[in-house]
Amino acid sequence: MTADLHLPWGTTARPPWALEVTPERAGWTYAGLRVLVLPAGGEVTFATGDEEMLVLPLAGAATVECDGLRMELAGRASVFAAVTDFAYVPRDATVTIRGEGRLALPSTRATRRLSPRYGAARDVPVELRGAGSASRQVNNFCAPDAFGCDRLVAVEVLTPGGNWSSYPPHKHEDDRTYDDGRVEAALEEIYYFEVSGGVPGDPAGPVGYQRVYGTDRRPIDVLAEVRAGDVVLVPYGYHGPSMAAPGYHLYYLNVLAGPGPKRTMACVDDPRHGWIRDSWADQPVDPRLPMTGTGAL
């Protein structure tokens, strides 16, 4: 499970999607991601099948129609410019998207059919996590406590240039409670990256780095150099750090889903590095944060 976990932009394209990662393509059961690139006046209609999805503007704006509901997404100029509004569309639905720009559609197989809904940018909880060179911003737009779904969980992370995020390394591959009270959930996870100053498909664009490594029981070994539009799949193992090169901010969209009956992001740190969290108490948060405000476009 170490091959085909880094998917550069363009390697998974299948019209109308500029990027398509289905559970089958990933080799697992639940989590998926698509990216739609619309020209001015563009329009796409598709069926969700057995998946619930979000429509999240990465750059641009769109109108989403589903079950007779019309949702106007004001969007944003880029992922580094603002927190965005978004739309939720359920399984077994027909969806039409009109607009211009680049839109991400995180997804997962769902058992319940919920109603389509609009998520306002002003309601997105923005968290500053870590400190010092491990400072980052987390936009918890579809975290378990922020927005209701059947199984889908998704958040955005913004890491200032030179900083590390997804750190200390952590994993969520087993449903278990440890003797010390820590709780871990089994979750599949997708990382979708953008880098400031880069555009998807530019092989000479600025880079970041993503690490994934395993245990003796389940070995995995990935160190991916990522550019705008790239994806890294995390089927199991410790993941982190996500490294932003000096001079270039790093963005990633996390898509998570698993078999558990309750939506969660429960994870456990690599015990060799968990002590790093305690070191943050004496360090200030990077003054470049928040990078995109706290929920207002």
Topology, please?
Layout: E1 6-7, E2 19-21, H1 23-26, E3 31-47, E4 51-66, E5 69-76, E6 86-89, E7 94-109, E8 117-119, E9 126-129, E10 136-142, E11 153-159, E12 164-165, E13 170-171, E14 176-177, E15 183-184, E16 188-195, E17 208-213, E18 221-226, E19 231-234, E20 238-244, E21 250-257, E22 268-269, H2 276-279
Antiparallel strand pairs: 1-19, 2-3, 3-7, 4-5, 4-6, 4-7, 6-8, 9-10, 10-11, 11-21, 12-20, 13-22, 14-15, 16-19, 16-21, 17-18, 17-20
Task: Sum this structure up briefly.
It is built from two helices and 22 strands. By secondary structure, it is an all-beta fold.
- Biggest sheet, spatial arrangement of strands: 1-19-16-21-11-10-9
Question: What is the CATH first-level class name?
Answer: Mainly Beta
Secondary structural class? mainly beta
In the CATH hierarchy, the third-tier topology is known as: Jelly Rolls
Protein name: 5-deoxy-glucuronate isomerase
GO molecular function, one term: glucuronate isomerase activity
Organism: Micromonospora globispora
Keywords: Isomerase
Describe the 3D structure.
The protein is mainly beta. The protein has one domain (6-280): Jelly Rolls (Sandwich), CATH 2.60.120.10. It has helices spanning 23-26, 276-279; strands at residues 6-7, 19-21, 31-47, 51-66, 69-76, 86-89, 94-109, 117-119, 126-129, 136-142, 153-159, 164-165, 170-171, 176-177, 183-184, 188-195, 208-213, 221-226, 231-234, 238-244, 250-257, 268-269. Strands 1-19-16-21-11-10-9 form a 7-stranded antiparallel sheet, with no helix packed on it. Strands 2, 3, 4, 5, 6, 7 and 8 form a 7-stranded antiparallel sheet that branches. It has a 4-stranded antiparallel sheet with strand order 12-20-17-18, with no helix packed on it. The termini are far apart. The model has no long low-confidence stretch (mean pLDDT 96).
